[in-house]
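SAMPLE LOG
Freezer: B-3
Tube label: C17
Construct: single chain, 137 aa
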Amino acid sequence: MKRVTKVLLAISIIALLTVTLAACGSSDTSNGDVIYNDGTYIGESEKREFGYEEAEVTIEGGEITNIVLKRMTPEGDEVDYDEWTGEDDRPNLKQFKEDLAEEMIEKQSYDVDAIATATETSEGWKEAVKNALEQAK
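STRUCTURE (predicted):
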């Protein structure tokens, strides 16, 4: 009888550990099992009072190979990044957009950390890439 109890206890512990480890599993929102169709896709973020973000995402061989991030005015004109180089209390959007795009390509996902000094713009770029990837499915 003690042997049966030990076996049941061991099975219970294994089952509990399995459930616990499965619950701690990754909730990765990257490409995973999603297959993207090759092409170039344009996505936009929500339009706000001062403009919106746009992303041009290129898919080759089912993978993200290039991302061009843009900040747009409310009229749809691209913002001049020469004015956004980190001087005069403005964030360095010129560098931020390149760094963010590079990280998304590396991770094959729009789900990357926002840039602290440009959170709203970073989140907009992430949303724009997400919307472009939705078109690529």
